[in-house]
Here is the input.
Amino acid sequence: MMENIITIRNIYKIYNEGDSEVRALNGISMDVDKGEFVAIVGQSGSGKSTLMNTLGCLDVPTAGEYLLDGENVEDLSEDELSEVRNRKIGFIFQGFNLVPGLTALENVELPLSYRRIPREERRELAEDALQRVGLGRRMRHRPGQMSGGQQQRVAIARAIAARPPIILADEPTGNLDTKSGSAVMEILHGLHQEGKTILLITHDEAIARQAQRRITIRDGVIVP
Here is the structure.
């Protein structure tokens, strides 16, 4: 029997409550098993990014229940939420969000330093992550000296360096050419084979078909 790592029940995210309210999420319920590869699909404005932010503990729902690896997120303080994010979730975004003045290695090390991981261990984790995404020879390069595909691989290395069990990828191939996009998907498949839980947000049908399961969201609700 598979074990849920994510359980959400009747999640609402409502902006401007009252007459002009917008229901970005409108009573969503879903489960994700440990080690599953799930694509969350929807057009722009469907609510998929709001759902991603909620699942990633970047945003708090207006109502509903969210259990992350058995822990009720609603009960956590800001500091505890931050700790859960750091420990359990690796984020990959469409915009690579790298610091231009830092090398690839320094970019990957940065979030590890926030976690107060000792310098030597930090360096080891960052180097290992960059090797795993095929950038062992580019560690000293800055983002401006790299292609878009290489920058996204640095971003993936940053997401996986602390070895979190969950990877949330928001349109990770959105800014890339086909070849670079395929390389990114290959890395995600490799992480999945290692037992990571992958949640991939995309509007690209070809990318969504590569997941084990797809969840389609429209106007803040999951549709068949």
Summary: The helical segments are 48-55, 78-88, 104-114, 119-132, 148-160, 178-193, 205-208. The radius of gyration is 18 Å. Residues 35-60+76-223 form a domain with the Rossmann fold fold (CATH 3.40.50.300).
